[in-house]
Amino acid sequence: MLGLYLGASLLAFLAYAFDKSAARKRRWRIPERTLHLLSLFCGWPGAWAAQQLLRHKSSKRSFQRVFWVTVLLNCGMLAGLRHLLPAVG
After folding, report:
1. What is the distance between the alpha carbons of residues 16 and 69, in angstroms, rounded to a whole number?
2. Residue 64 lies in a domain
3. Which of 31, 32, 47, 88 is most buried by its number of CB atoms within 10 A?
């Protein structure tokens, strides 16, 4: 699981960095829905780090509301998986 979160977080961070750069250059942007899906599917730590370090999407309230819903949903799915899968070790 750690590898999944690290990989998805790296991908999310890079997506935010690309989107920030594209916004500055007035080029094609990554849709917000895509950024939210990356967060939902284990990339939220990287997305959160990008928001803080790059100051991207961190002050847009509507985006932040959906972002934190994706964090809660992901954590809920992770907790659910822990109960479904037998303990290892």
Report:
1. 18
2. yes
3. 47
In a domain, 28, yes or no: yes
26-65 pLDDT tens trace = 999 999 999 999 999 999 999 999 999 999 999 999 999 9
Residue 89 domain-assigned (yes or no)? no
> Can you give the pLDDT at residue 85?
73
What domain range is 67 assigned to?
A: 2-84
Please list, in sequence order, all residues whose beta carbon lies within 8 angstroms of the beta carbon of residue 48, skipping any fewer than 6 positions away.
67, 71
Overall residue count recorded for the chain in this entry: 89
Which residues make Cβ contacts (< 8 Å) with residue 43, sequence separation at least 6? 5, 8, 9, 11, 12, 13
Torsion of CA 4, 52, 16, 78, to 10 degrees: 30
